């Protein structure tokens, strides 16, 4: 029981969690990231076909990364903390 008591005392003595990014900025971040994702998706659809699709890969990877972070920011804005 001494282990549980020490963990409980440590838990009570620590400060509350505070995020690095304020919650009030999350809607704006989500809008910015998802807007950039849609813009890059449109740009991706207008790229010409090439033998080595390096530009397509870069644009698609960037859009995917921004879209993932944008969806997480949107969920956190709605109160679903993932």
Structure commentary:
This is Dolichyl-diphosphooligosaccharide-protein glycosyltransferase subunit OST5. Helix content is 70%, strand content 0%. The chain is mostly helical. It has one domain (20-78). α2 runs antiparallel to α3 (54-78). The chain is elongated and about 65 Å long. The chain starts with a helix and ends with a helix.
Q: Count structural domains.
A: 1
Largest sheet: none
Cα end-to-end separation: 33 Å
The multimeric state of the shown protein is single chain
Output the helix-strand order.
Answer: HHH
Shape: elongated
Treating each run of at least 4 consecutive H or I residues as one helix, how many helices? 3
Mean pLDDT: 92
Would you count the extended β strands for me? 0
C-alpha-based Rg, rounded: 21 Å
Strand content: under 5%
User: Any low-confidence stretches, pLDDT <50, length ≥5?
Assistant: none
Percent range of helical residues: 55-70%
What secondary-structure arrangement, pairings included, does this model have?
Blueprint: H1 2-13, H2 26-45, H3 54-78
Helix pairs in contact: 2-3
State the gist of this model.
70% of the residues lie in helices and 0% in strands. It has three helices and no strands. The chain is elongated and about 65 Å long.
Relevant terms:
about 80 residues, 3 helices, about 70% helix, about 0% strand
């Amino acid at each position: 029981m001494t282990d549980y008591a020490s963990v409980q005392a440590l838990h009570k003595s620590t400060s509350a969690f505070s995020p690095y990014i304020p919650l009030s900025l999350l809607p704006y971040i989500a809008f910015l990231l998802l807007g950039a994702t849609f813009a890059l998706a449109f740009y991706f659809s207008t790229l010409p076909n090439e033998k080595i699709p390096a530009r397509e890969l870069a644009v698609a990877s960037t859009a995917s990364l921004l879209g993932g972070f944008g969806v997480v920011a949107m969920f956190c804005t709605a109160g679903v903390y993932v």
